[in-house]
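Field reference: sequence -> structure
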Amino acid sequence: MRVLSMPEVLDLWACASVERSWRRALVLAGADNYDEAAEWPLGQRDERLLALRRQLLGPRMALRQQCASCRADLESAIDLDMLPPPPIGTPAPLEHSGYSVRFRLPDSRMLARIEGAASVEQARAELIDCCVEHAETNGVRVQPRELPPEVIDALGRAIDAADPRANLELSLECAVCAATFTVQFDAASCVWTELDAWARRRLEEVHLLAEAYGWTEREILSLSPRRRQAYIDLVTQ
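Structure field:
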């Protein structure tokens, strides 16, 4: 992703703010063709999202969560450069228990399909339908939902191995009660939360300085962060 100017980032934020969550992620990922981008594996989409995040705020991301045991509010951080790489190429078919399964990796179109699922079980079944392109045993084709549980479990492991970012879990330890627990890292949600806060701070700065000096938005945003803050300090002191 090319380096965006501050006005371009604010334009991107404005476009993303009116979209549903799965499509918003594609906007932030810089998709030119949404039909094509909707088929990017989630790890590929998230790599583009995190490239934008690194550009704005650097590679270290603060996370806030609640301890699963004592419910204490915790803060931690991750280094985005240490995350597993995005998927490359088409995954090899799964061969397990006499079954051969050709599959696709989860993408945004699949997320949109399961968004309205009534239960976790229904969402899981629909995701299997989406991911499995062809399954057979002894030369006989098998429908995705007819696959035995052990093959479904193996398929889940194969998907996680091929695109570890699609279902990335972080292992954490509570600083209060020392309990260990895992949380899912939702890159799209985290990046949007940070970008939304960043954009609103920039707009507050523009409002303050435009009111004080009569400058245009573009003139204010063209200032370096240090100079912009210096003028804000003068106005608010």
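Note: The mean pLDDT is 93.
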